[in-house]
Amino acid sequence: MAENKQQYNAEQIQVLEGLEPVRKRPGMYIGGTGSEGLHHLIWEIVNNSIDEALAGEATIVEVVMHDNGWVTVTDDGRGIPVDKHKTTGKSALETVLTVLHAGGKFGGGGYKVSGGLHGVGISVVNALSTELKAVVWKDGKEYVQLYKAGVPVSDIKVVGKTSKRGTQISFKADDDIFETTKYNYKIVLDYLRHQAYLTKGVHVNIKDENSNQSYGFYFEGGIKSYVEHLNKGRESLNEPTFYVDKKVDEVVVEIAIQYSDSFNEQVKAFANNIFNPEGGTHIVGFRTALTRVINEYARKNSIIKEKEENLTGDDVREGLTAIVSVKLPDPQFEGQTKAKLGNPEMRNIVEKVLNEYLSYYLEENPNEAKKIIGKGLLSARARMAARAARDSVIRKGALEGMTLPGKLADCSSKDRSKSEVYIVEGDSAGGSAKQGRDRNFQAILPLRGKILNVERARLDKMLANNEVKSLIIALGTGIGETFDIDRLRYNRIIIMTDADVDGAHIRTLLLTLFYRHFPDLVTGGHIYIAQPPLFKVSKGKTAKYAFSDAERDEIISDIMQSISQKVVEKEAKSKSTSEVSKKEVESAEDLAKLAEEVTGAESDDDTPKEDNPLKKAGINIQRYKGLGEMNPEQLWETTMDPQNRVLLQVKVDDAERADAIFNKLMGEEVSLRKTFIQTHAKDVTNLDV
Q1: From CA 47, how far away is CA 35, in angstroms rounded?
Q2: How is domain 10-217 classified at the CATH fold level?
């Protein structure tokens, strides 16, 4: 066990305000009471343990999700102080567990750098738990204290001697507060993986007693390993991966860079292990230095000629995967969500570090340098070609005015908030959709066949594709550097394809286009997937639609029971009550027999029935393999009428996982797709071959 590197006791705990509001307004502190808020409880405790690791005091962090709803987080750090706090008069342990904004992260005494939620973490978890148990191993003793709903039920007690050190927090989320108290193993696993990448040298373990799964992480390479993980399945252009870990005064700058054959940029920013999705000053410094260093090297080595223009920032970032992680004593974030780092000094520090060490890297790895710059030059040529193609698209859109592209049947409403466009597969379905729609607010854009796979194409090639071009003009936002979401013409963009393999492929191609080139439409909740029915189940003049095999079977079962009831009622008219027996319907054959006992009026036509017992019973099941098989009235009733339809909104809860899936499904690496198909083949329940 490592020695204590600095004093950590009650003197480092500063109190800012009380805890009372937490149970009344939990959303203010953890973002909500749904699944995300529930998992946030784990993050708060884990972040405390990771802070110990960042301070060089802990080497192990372990999370156990018990089968009784409890969660336990353990580390081998210094242990939360247990001595008396001079302001509260309570132990430091009870202070941090019961007072909001009390912790070692204020005043600079406990931690030089830390994450956490402004120090509210552990007290918020305590307040939102029905029970919490705190165990501290410190100074050769084991201390224990119990809480209920944030209130201590006992004083802190010494229960024995120990050679261990560290802290263990066990808690049970309050099911009166949270909408769900069921934890997702995959979500916790992914979060812990990220923390392990960002804190090199720490062992992070997870165990889920509910699913009997466990896993451990340890990355000596830190964010260098993280970048290589993100680029899995892509061809790397620079080996070894660029990596620097440099301390400037009290600030640590850690950067990893790897280029791939991809056309997309993936840069992730972190401050004190907190993800900053909107970047910040550290990213501004990173981008400035990256563009400058690559251009300076290219000119110095005559790769870019004297009369040629410099590469732009977009050019040098094509195919770039990078992690920029900084650790600083007093991070200033913009907004409660910590989406953006605001410390002005971080721009110059990061810029200085990358200028120096990336220059060394390019000089020492000339072959990698040529590949990186060659990638940028190709991007520059494609950018110029794309600009010409994009200008052509914009001119065409302006010239066509209200008619817009191709076969678009626009809606009459000019109110974007009420308008929607259906992107429909094929002219046949497009025809039905145009006839069945509500012209006031629904537009229809039929696409011919499968659009271009944009995962494997630059912007210039995309804009040469007529189907993609028509879609861009119809949306009105522009694309690339001209994208402007304020020009979006429809609030809802609905993908409506056939319920077969080809339809699924077209849907995936469209989702790839939106995710890669219109990410704001995805994150803004504008993209939807229509859910056309798979079956029409009819008997006589009554018809119902089923959206799954299970729903179809449920409808058939209801019809069986209805026929059974009619037979019972028919018998009741001719027999005494004691003679009437309940008719059991357990199969289609039973149904056919029962149907024969009912009057011939059960069937509307005199056509001979097939041997199929459902047919004999007068039940007809129609399987829709294509939207074109539905007439306009059916398409409206089942898939387009806002009163009846089912739409799936496309969301990206984890962009990193989404990026990996799109790369697997749509990228160049065939083996990744093969493995994906083999892994998930058993889960496919609706496959037409």
Answers
A1: 18
A2: Heat Shock Protein 90 (3.30.565)
